[in-house]
Amino acid sequence: MGGCCSRDEVGRMPTCGAMEQVDAFYAAEEESVRVGDGGARVRLKGSCMVASMFTQQGWKGVNQDAMTVWEGFAGDQDTVFCGAFDGHGPYGHRVACHVRDALPSRLQSGMKAFEGGADDTAGDGWFASWKASIVSAFEELDKELSNHPWIDCICSGATAVTILKERDHLIIANLGDSRAVLCTRDDDDQLVPVQLTVDQKPNLPSELQQMH
């Protein structure tokens, strides 16, 4: 989400001091647990019974990773939402944090229109409803970021990889080249990684074909 090109930034961004205040705001918001929409238990770091999160700052500067786990997502105690967002560009950390905070709520709002068919967990209606909500939320958030008043997304953005677990069902959605990998076991009881997402990169043949 976001963009990647160059342009004159005069008059677009707040002063450096104001942006330092923005970064301080994000840092202050990094408490372990929040209460989200519908009473969900929201974690931004650490671990719980259903998930564990870890990130490590590299050598290139500020850590641009953001992640979240929502237990009791969409008001359902059997539903968990997980998301990881990797920022890029000079303001990538702000984009990643904004997506982390805004995307889950947008997904829940989108699902309200499909509540009538959400109980059909064995049929295609349930999946189609979530898919429509996810696609819409990604598109709306991307548009919102392009017009954000104090996060410059012209040269900055973030990848997104999200997992929605509802009882025995998994829905995985990704944007960019962050991956979801399932750890399973083979016939010899050895751990085997299974990549669940397909990278979106401009140098991949499938992406090039769509661009042309």
From TrEMBL:
It catalyses: O-phospho-L-threonyl-[protein] + H2O = L-threonyl-[protein] + phosphate; O-phospho-L-seryl-[protein] + H2O = L-seryl-[protein] + phosphate. Coiled coil: none annotated. PROSITE patterns: PPM_2. Its EC number is 3.1.3.16. Residues 50-212 form the PPM-type phosphatase domain. It comes from the Eukaryota. The keyword Nucleus does not apply. Keywords: Hydrolase, Protein phosphatase. It is an enzyme of class 3 (hydrolase). One of its GO terms (molecular function) is protein serine/threonine phosphatase activity. This is protein-serine/threonine phosphatase. The lineage of its organism: Eukaryota, Viridiplantae, Streptophyta, Embryophyta, Tracheophyta.
